[in-house]
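Notes from the 1:1 (GR / supervisor)

We went over the backlog. Supervisor wanted to see one worked example end to end before approving the batch request, so GR pasted a single chain during the call. The sequence is below; no edits were made to it. Supervisor asked that the structure be written out right there so they could see what the output format looks like.
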Amino acid sequence: MKTVIFDLDGTLADTSADLLNAANKCFEALGYKSSLNLIDHAHIALRGGRALLKKGYDLEKISYTEDDVSKQYPLFLDIYEKNISTKTFFYPGVRRALKILKQADFKLGICTNKPAYLAEKLMSDLNFRAEFCSLVGSDSIPFKKPHPEHYFESVRRCGGDIEKSLLVGDTITDYDTARAAGVPIILVDFGPGRHNIKGLKPDAFLSDYCDLFDICKDLIS
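Structure output shown during the call:
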């Protein structure tokens, strides 16, 4: 069975505003101003909450340890969960592109380093969870991207064939995952992390979701 596995943040949807908001609220609770912003720090959101918290400490010139970050992380997750779909949106053409893939008998899944419960909530809030037959988060199994087992599990839960699958992502982590798994990789070149993938050589770049079906058809025989 032909299978297309998608990363979530920065690939299917722009989640950066809600992630940045959660980090800023943590610093407001500590008595500091909100310094993280979409223009300068959206790409950091792709690396998750801990990376955002560390950047926030740096911006405020606050000395911190990993323990300080760990203490703030549960608050970050709580705030983010409560506001997970406030400003998040799917990129143009995503819903239509995935509908076309499904009509052509492709299985669809999600492989994300976001905690599974947050990914599930986000996709349900945006009324798009039913389109995917698998969703494997960072805590779903003992491995996460770029370990290939994370990807393999996403394909298996779809009932798909590894040799007839590919990954659509937006970061070097996705690129490394696909290369480790021995499958084609499509990188979107319009998300917050677009400047960090310029030197990579994926099997294809995706600039418009209207082109996704043709690319997948060419890469999966």
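Supervisor's comment: The two ends are 11 Å apart (CA to CA).
Batch request approved.
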